[in-house]
Design brief:
With 258 residues, this protein is an alpha/beta fold. The chain has one domain: Metal-dependent hydrolases (TIM Barrel). α1 packs parallel to α7. The C terminus is likely disordered.
């Protein structure tokens, strides 16, 4: 039933073990374009464990109108998933380290900032994303408004935005504002194309990337993560660069009072 993917090679220390925590995943079933079932989530989690992750943070999409998720419903679904997994007792899976969100900067985002209605990574970081197709105007003010709510910002997969090069002045401006960057591991093997792959490596070499994430969605992503864990260039990158994933602390109990 489980462990349908087998690593090509068993290594003493899995490639992504130094990260410990995956801060970006879509394995909460049925809420976005990620996992469709508990079974699929468990298979993905087993692969993530074999790749070296001890802990996982669920970060479902908040994107209007495509994924109009509400924090209270996400918290309930997260609790139910944990209970279901405990009842099945699968082996070799990472532990949950909380539920947060990947928030799209869209037409309703300013209202979210006003309401300060977010689930945070480690009760500290707000994980945001931009449109993959069209550049949003006024991002500097949006970033400033978020920081005025005492949230630190992680920008998800900056390598995937086609309107930014790896040396774009706008990205430099974000770094100057203290924004953290999270690159997708699968970008490093060309999962999203050669452009994001090249930009991901360039950003890491520039020292712009503080976090790596799987952005795990489904078993197709899980198979790609296996490939990434055996990619020699990625193995060397992990030996050379240090990331901040392991510094994400256990979040406090999150309120269901939204």
């Amino acid at each position: 039933m489980f462990n349908i993917f087998k690593p090509k090679v068993k290594t003493a220390i899995p490639t992504f073990a130094p990260l410990e925590v995956d801060i970006h995943s879509h394995i909460l079933p049925g809420v976005d374009d990620g996992s469709k079932s508990n079974e699929e989530s468990i298979v993905c989690m087993q692969v993530m464990h074999d790749a070296g992750f001890k802990n996982i943070i669920c970060t479902p999409h908040y994107q209007y109108p495509r994924f109009p998720n509400e924090e209270s419903d996400i918290l309930n679904r997260y609790d139910n998933l944990k209970l279901d997994i405990m009842s099945i007792k699968p082996t070799n899976i990472p532990q949950f380290k909380g539920v947060a969100g990947e928030y799209r900067v869209d037409s309703g985002f300013s209202q979210r900032i006003e309401q300060n209605k977010f689930l945070l990574v480690g009760n500290r970081f707000l994980l945001i994303e931009f449109s993959l197709h069209q550049q949003v105007m006024g991002l500097e003010q949006i970033m400033f408004d978020i920081q005025m709510k005492n949230h630190e910002i992680i920008l998800a997969h900056p390598e995937r935005y086609p309107y930014y090069s790896s040396s774009a002045p706008k990205l430099q401006q974000f770094k100057d504002m203290g924004v953290y960057f999270q690159v997708n591991i699968l970008s490093l093997i060309g999962f999203y194309g050669d452009g994001p792959r090249r930009k991901a490596f360039e950003m890491i070499e520039k020292g712009w990337v503080e976090f790596l994430g799987t952005d795990m969605h489904n078993t197709l992503y899980a198979q790609a993560l296996i490939d990434a864990s055996h990619d020699r260039k990625i193995i060397k990158l992990m030996e050379k660069h240090k990331f901040l994933n392991s510094q994400i602390t256990n979040p406090q109990a999150q309120s269901k009072s939204f």
